[in-house]
Amino acid sequence: MAATSNQTIAAAEKGAPGKAVRVARPPASRAGMMPASVLDRAGRGNLLYVLPGLVVYAAFVFLPILAAVAVSLTTWDGLSRPIFVGLQNYIDLFSDGNFYISLRNNAELILFYAVLPLIVGIGLAALISVTRQRERLVLRTLLFMPYIMPTAVLGIIWAWLYNPAFGPFNQFLKAIGLGRIALPWLGDFTWVLPAVGMVAVWYFFGFCMVIFLTGMQRIDPQLFDAAKVDGARGWHAFLYITLPSLLPEIRVVLLLTVIASIKSFDLIFTMTRGGPGNATLVPNIYMYQLGFQLNRYGYAAAVAIIGAILIFIVNYAIHRLVRPMDKAAS
Amino acid sequence: MPRTHKSLVKVALAGAALGLMVAASGGARADSLVVWDQYTDTGQPQVMQKLIKNFEKAHQGVTINETERTFDDLSMTLKLTVAAGNGPEVTQVNQGASDQGTMVKQKLLEPLDAYAKKYGWDKRQSASVLARSEWSDKHQFGEGHLYGISGLGEMVGLFYNQKVLSDAGIAKPPADFDELLKDVDTLKAKGVTPFVIGTAKGHLALHMLTGIEQAHIDASKRAALDNVIYGRGGTFKTKQDLDASTLVQKWAKNGDFNDGYQGISGDDAVQLFVAGQGAFLIDGTWYFGAMQTNPDIHFMPIPAPADISKPLTVGGIDLSWSITTNAKTQAQKDLSAQFIDYMVSPEAANTWAGAGFFPSTPVTDPSVVKSPLLKEGLAMWKVLGQNNALGHYADWASPTMLKTYDDDMPHLLAGDMTPQAFVDALDADYQNYLKTGK
Predict the structure, then answer these.
(1) Cα B418 from Cα B420, distance rounded (Å)
(2) How many A×B Cβ pairs under 8 Å?
(3) In this predicted complex, what is the ipTM?
(4) Domain B154-316+389-436, what fold?
(5) Residues forming beta bridges with residue B145, ordered by sequence position
């Protein structure tokens, strides 16, 4: 009945702001009346609709994580029965030189996965945001394109580009007389990590740029007008208005790219397999080698668990340290 | 409802008939085999297809389901798949502690002694060759029950480009090790790349190092090497290991390798060598397919010091054919053994040789051997058999040895690991294996 619905609305409006308003029960269904949606039903009935997603999540994410924790407490060669060893794998991990090398390499890679694309992304977004609509659209699309390619394919293609005998980079350097710096990029202990990192920068900068462009559209143009009146130049406006307003986007970008860098496997695997020596060894590659080449699945699982804990810690740090100015946005 | 009732009866009858058929077919005959192999190099898949077709023709009603995988992929997937009860009945397995040894320990492979006697395999391949697929009940490598037999032989030797050598003023290939060292200097002085090598992927550096080491061991003194490889004890800290590591490091430092070798793969290096970009390349007979496109390229044993009359050559046999425990019935096992017997038969050997590849069973029809490279290789193989001078792949020594070599060779070649430290690292790996068994 219309009267009843109005009562419901009136009751809601009367409710003081901040105080929980009691949701009126939907009226019984009668011919001619709008039936109440099943989604409005309170509580347990809704669990039924969450269940499929929950089952998939449990089967493919939660249970495997539990299994990995269980395996990490054993010594297992993949074939015979696992032998329970308690926390021995974790204790061995603490004195494992290769593990620390992999963590150090990963820390260096975070520079190329997160920091550099972020800087390049913000810079490009600032430049592009002042262009005309059509040019902005074209530039945005072109610069975003690296992100849509699968990283494994990128690894194979860039490995060929870097090839000192057949690849175009070194041939170009030799052709313009810079043969002395035509190094074997993926075979050189010093340069292999930056070389792999550059591919990550190329991959992520367009993605970062698009996110920052969106963020910049959020900024109230009146702020810039006020700044102009106060005599602030373009660079000052960028530093004191744009950057702080972009903190939510910076946080999102940092979270996503840091997670990507700790998860990185396919790019490094297709380019260097962790070599030469252990120069590009990262925890995920170490885990792969331990499991599939050395048949130490328990130890590999311990590496995986520690890696996951590290992701949580780093992301929590970013979450805490990069706080936007207005509380509502967090 | 009569219509439904009739349909139900029809379905029940069909089901019973199907059940009877299934029961009948699972009986005394096996009519299909799942086969895994790693014949992925240029030219090899075609030979396998031909052999499989011949086998199916000779065994009417039998279908072979064959899958090829690269060496790395096969190693990675085989053990887990067979342990789970899936996968092939017949497969190639890499010898040594890591793959074949582990599978034997977990009872995933069938012993083949009865079949070897039935088909006379010991008359086709020598005892020292067959020993490489043997594991005893006490899990001792190199003796006991036979778990596989190989179709192809392999040797690591010196590929040389006669035209590049002649152009640099060297009339014939080096006759002994000192001449090789002199030739390297001569080539370098003339601006020709002495060695073509690539270390980013593949194992060319390992083969160069161990090839030189074993060329300094006479067959009469081979017991120490055999003991190390078969896990009976010994050490990697030998004079020839240290000398070879020092020499290879010196060559890398001197620029005797092609520019940028650290960044290219072994396959790339072979391509460069076939294109005439260097004088020597040390690696194995599996590259014959690629090398035979350049008629100036020849193959010879790595020249040994003059005082060693029967130098060892690194090599052996390719991955051995084995029967897994997925062959559950006697009929399946027998069919699997028939397939393997065909793979190591003289007929198969002639087919491989005709395509330019190196069979481990002797070739009975010399006219099929058209490739000059293969003629050279087969002549070498004969001498090695007579001299009992077939060496070993050093990475067979422990399950982790290959990884230890892969991790440390780049440092040795780059000069930031001393040869002594390198040899010590290998020995530490081996001693750990002897102590702990893993």
Answers:
(1) 5
(2) 82
(3) 0.76
(4) D-Maltodextrin-Binding Protein; domain 2 (3.40.190)
(5) B135
